Amino acid sequence: MRDIFVIMRKEGGVKKTEIVYGANLNFVRASRIIKWLIEKELVTVESDRYEITEKGEEIFREIDKLGTLFK
Question: Which CATH code for domain 2-69?
Answer without folding.
Answer: 1.10.10.10
